[in-house]
């Protein structure tokens, strides 16, 4: 039975790393003493060790130990035997590339579908969808595939931003980009605003947090999903 939190971001304005969601993480990781951290997305190009230390500091607040996957000789075995998994944010293309090259896509799918608790933030949330084609990131590397973990039956756009009506910027909005995506792809997209997350329990996918989510379905007018909305029927 899947036990997942898919969070738009790791850090909201005025709060420390994962601080806004630590109470939820205490519940998610209740039965785990140690969490396997996957730092492959490397925000700002920081080292795997430095990124793991950031996660370790945050999880120490709820008495959970962190071990970076790069510290293991065999990444697949590390996932297979993990009590829990956390995939952090950064660049989604770099993350996806490393997951494929280390043969971890199927390993993570199997572990999570078997009940291993999973937390994703930002890029780590992008990969929970069907593909990574709705990420906001620059394609600075070329992964073997854009197909992702498919832990939920739609795509995700973390850090979703609404158009700023006071801005003089004339470039494309997030909504415009997602409409472009639907010109070539059929998958629904959940625009997940910062401070919100999806709580997946088995087949249930519920929007959590104080903000609504923007839902995009091909051929339909985008609409808002309220807090506690069940999203498992999107497909």
TrEMBL record:
Coiled coil: none
Keywords annotated in UniProt: Cytoplasm, Dipeptidase, Hydrolase, Protease, Serine protease
GO molecular function: dipeptidase activity; serine-type peptidase activity
GO biological process: proteolysis
The protein's enzyme class: hydrolase
InterPro entries, sorted: Class_I_gatase-like, Peptidase_S51
Chief localisation class: cytoplasm
GO cellular component, one term: cytoplasm
EC annotation from Swiss-Prot or TrEMBL: 3.4.13.21
Record's catalysed reaction(s): Dipeptidase E catalyzes the hydrolysis of dipeptides Asp-|-Xaa. It does not act on peptides with N-terminal Glu, Asn or Gln, nor does it cleave isoaspartyl peptides
Compartment annotation: Cytoplasm
Protein's UniProt keywords contain Cytoplasm: yes
Protein family membership: Belongs to the peptidase S51 family.
NCBIfam families found in the cross-reference section: PRK05282.1 (NF003642)
Protein name: dipeptidase E
Native source species: Aestuariibaculum marinum
